[in-house]
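Workshop exercise sheet. Pairs work together: one partner reads the sequence aloud, the other fills in the structure field after running the prediction. Swap roles for the next sheet.
Pair: D.N. / O.F.
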Amino acid sequence: MYEKQAILLEAIDSYGEVYRAKSISMRRFLAALMLLLLIALILTSLPTPAQARSCYPSRGHEICLERIQRSAKYHWQYKVKATVDGQAQPLTQYNCRDRLKTPLEGANKGVPIQFSAEGVGDRICKLVNR
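Structure field:
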């Protein structure tokens, strides 16, 4: 009789071991799955820089705004890198308050110029002041 009880206890112990082994592997699998889901959630929620160019036609030309950077100190000033008909234009600072543009590169560097009503400056000021 004792032999049968010992065999029965061994079977229960071995079954318990198998069950515990499955339980631990299932816990590891669920932990790895939760970690992957957390990483995927973090990666999809991070803001990404805008890659699309803002292009529009103006007086028979295609003007594309490649990069717009707002000044942290003067919220009405924007630095813009643009292309007109595929040709890169110098980096220019636009002042929406005084309606002035100041090239930061090229021959006219640092010389403020009044920008026109239908040009890049007007478009930027309308775009950002919505």
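Discussion prompt: The chain has a mean pLDDT of 79. What would you look at next?
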